[in-house]
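--- STAGE predict ---
source: upstream dedup step, 1 unique chain passed
mode: sequence only
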Amino acid sequence: MGLKIGSPRETYGGEARVAMTPDSAQQLQKLGYDCLIEAGAGKAAGFSDEAYKAAGVTVVDTAAALYDAADIIAKVRPPEAVEIDLLSPSKTLISFFYPGQNAELLEQARSKGANVIAMDMVPRISRAQKMDALSSMANIAGYRAVIEAGNNFGRFFTGQVTAAGKVPPAKVLVIGAGVAGLAAIGTATSLGAITYAFDVRPEVAEQIESMGAQFVYLEFEATQDGAATGGYAAPSSPEFREKQLAKFRELAPDIDIVITTALIPGRDAPKLWLADMVAAMKPGSVVVDLAAERGGNCDLTVADQKIVSDNGVTIVGYTDFPSRMAAQSSTLYATNIRHMMTDLTPAKDGVVVHNMEDDVIRGATVTKGGEITYPPPPPKIQAIAAAKPKEKVKELTPEEKRAQEIAAFKTQTRNQVGMLAGGGALILLAGLYAPASFMSHFIVFVLACFVGFQVIWNVSHSLHTPLMAITNAISSIIILGALMQIGSGNFLVILLAGLSILMAGINIVGGFMVTRRMLAMFQKS
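--- STAGE serialize ---
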């Protein structure tokens, strides 16, 4: 019989998310688990108790009953002390935990002997992306930040020209191009705003520009790598910070909406949008600070509050952006939990195999068997690495460029002359011994090979499919030649001509099928 996994109602004030949805419960049951849910746990996220019952989930009346019955507890927010007291050595807790900031909770969990898997500690390696709950929630936070900014902004995002007058587009600056920042950039751009973005990691410039935003460059000699282990940004040097702040002061008077997302796990949020920058902004502008929970990137941010500065700038410091989209957040987080359970249940028999040799499971486990296992060792597979700095190409002088061109021309000429001389010698040798009837066909064969090489071989492989119609035409020419030869009295000639017709026919039919599919991609269904 499989173990039981349950999700209690979140006790944190205002938290609307739930760690199990009816859909994820059905997937967990396929892994061999029995699912439990506390009554009303999903109501704030739009999931009724009836929906859970229809999905085969047992609804229990109280949290205490759920903790007593379930072997695995799945939560969203870090547990309260009273919730850890309900754990036992036979139970496993899966939730956000933030062990670096919750040493007392970590010690309490160790003393209870329970196994704790922190979803915020999932290593950032490719295989673990499906379990990366931090990225899931950051994606929602970035999107919601733009929506919240629009709710407090008094104008359109997109520019308009109407009979009543011209409306300029809003200018949005996103500071930090992590998951939340990229989500904010995509949303602001899709709404029609002129979007700027800044990040200390220059390698993300291409990502930003590919989404339609403009990367804010600094005139600064790079003396350090802007990325740290795991794909996060590294703390900036004092000199870089001064250049950064100077650039923000230059941009502040023209920017309508600022969204700050700069946050390094385990550290207080760096102050990037200072009080004088807020004072320089136009009345009615908006600052949305996604780092408010760790002190905020803006000087004026107040956690969980929305304030208005003396010059009429609105500063939004909410810390529950994912919870404000509870249905979507719960769906994504429950999927992250389900993928974690899939890795913990390799046999799909409802039995947890807590394999501490697995990089993902080991990295996320913070207590096990009465011992604290945080911090984890570095994963065997390296996390997303920072892009290596490109080597500067040495500028050649005009004389060096000229010498290089002459050397390349001489090499190319030498190769061509050598090939022509070798080919001519082979043809001459064949002409000395072969009959005249053979030579006429041989010359045509050589010319066909040359034309085929020039037309097909020099074409990039990536263009072969779009050029399939041309290759069909060439194959048709081959068929014409084979048809002319198939009436020969020589058995060998008939055999070769038949094979040519067969192979060319396959090429033509296959080519037209691929071309037809390619053209269908551009037709309206």
